[in-house]
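Annotated sample (chain length 295).
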Amino acid sequence: MASFRFYLVDVFAPKKYAGNQLAVVLAEKGLSTEKMQLIALEMNYSETTFILSSLPEQNGFPVRIFTPTTEIPFAGHPTLGTAFIIKKIFHYEKAPIMLNLQVGPIPVAPEINENGEEIYWMTQLPPQFGRNYSPEKIAPALNLSPTDIDPNYPIQEVSTGLPFLVVPLCSLSALRQAKLEKNLFYQVVNKGLARAPLIFCPESYTGHHHLSVRVFADYYGVPEDPATGSANGCLAGYLAHYQYFGSSDLNIRVEQGFEVKRPSLLYLRASPDEKGTIKVEVGGQVILVARGELI
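Output written by the structure step:
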C-alpha cells in the first residue's frame, strides 16, 4: 500500500482533547474500499474520512466516510473536520468549502464568532420527518419510564442526511439515567428508518447552554458518540419545526459527550424559508491534535 498522510482532529471541541475525534486521510481515488475500511478499523475512531483529491472537482472535494465497520453516506463531525483539513493543509481559502459526499454536495463555511473563535458551519439537507413512536414503546428501550419523556413533543424519526430517532426528555437526571437496551430498541424500530436515538433535555451540565444531548449509535459501531453533527442537524430541524423555543428560528448551543468524558459544544441554527423549507446549519470548533503517515 502506498503511504498516505493523515491528521487527527478534535471536532466540536471547546478545548484540545475534548469533542469528537476524527482521522482524516489524504488518499487517492485508486485506494480500494476494502483498504479504506481496514484503515478506518485501524484508526478505530467513530469515523475516519478519506479526501480523494487535493483539488475540488465538479461538486467539491471528493470525500468518503467510514466507521470502523461500514461506510456511511453522511456524518456531521467528519464533514467539519475534513473541511478544516482542506482549509488548513491545502491552504484552500474559498468559501464555502464544498465536500462531495454520498448524500451529495455539502457546504462548510468558517466564521469568526463574537469571542474570536473560528466556527465551522455546515449546511445539511432540509429535514425530513418520519415515523412517530409512543413513550410506552420507546422508554423501556432506553431504560427510562414513560414519564421521563416530555409529553408535549413527539418521539419522531428525522433525517437531514442520516435518520435519527429524536426523543425529548424532561430532565437532565433522565438523560443521565438513559441506557440503550439494544435488542429491545431494534425490535421496536425495526419497521422504521432510524437505527440510532438522539435524546435531549432542556438542561445543561454547565448551566451556560440551552440543551444537553446524548446519541447512542451502537448500530454504526459507536456505543455512545461524544458529538454527533448529523444527529444534531436532525434535532435542529425538529426544534424549529415544533417551535420548541417558541419560534421557528433557532440559534442555540448544545452540550454532548459529558457521559463519555469528551465534553463537546455544538452550535445549531435553523430557519424556514418562504416555502416553509427549513434550512439547518450545525457548527463547531475544530482543533488539530496530531499528524502522521500510513505506511
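Annotation: The two ends are 7 Å apart (CA to CA).
Annotation: The chain has a mean pLDDT of 96.
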